[in-house]
Fold GST C-terminal domain-containing protein.
Amino acid sequence: MTTGAFKPYSLRKEHKHKIIYYCIPAIIKAAFTANEEEREKGTEESLDALQILEDELKQKFFGGESIGLVDIAAGFIAFWLPAIEEAVGLKLLVSQKFPKLSKWSEEYTNHPVVKESLPQRERVVGFFKARYASIIASK
C-alpha cells in the first residue's frame, strides 16, 4: 500500500468512483519525473489504481455492453497511457496483470466513434518522447 495523499484501499471501500482522478496524476508522476524515488512511487500508485479499475470492470465496458461516462473518463488509460508507455519505456498496463483492462482498452480505442476522434498515435508518442527527453536533460 502506498502512503501520502493516494490511498487506494480507502478508495476501494468508500470512493472508488474517484479512482480515475487519482490514476492520471500517478501515471504522470511515474512517466515524467526525473527523480527515481518519485518515479517508483508514481509507478506503485499507478499499479494500485489500475488494479482497482481491473477489479471494477465486469463487462465489455464499465457501464455494460456500450460505452458510458466512466469509459469516456477512463479513456486516458486506453489511448494516452500506451502512448506514454511507448515514449518513456514504462510498462504499467500489462495484459498478464490486467487482462480485463487491456481488453477493454483495445475495445474502447477500436470502437468506431472513439477511433475517429483520436489523434494520430505517432504524433502523440513523438510529443511524449520530446517531453520526456527535456525532463531527463534538465536533471
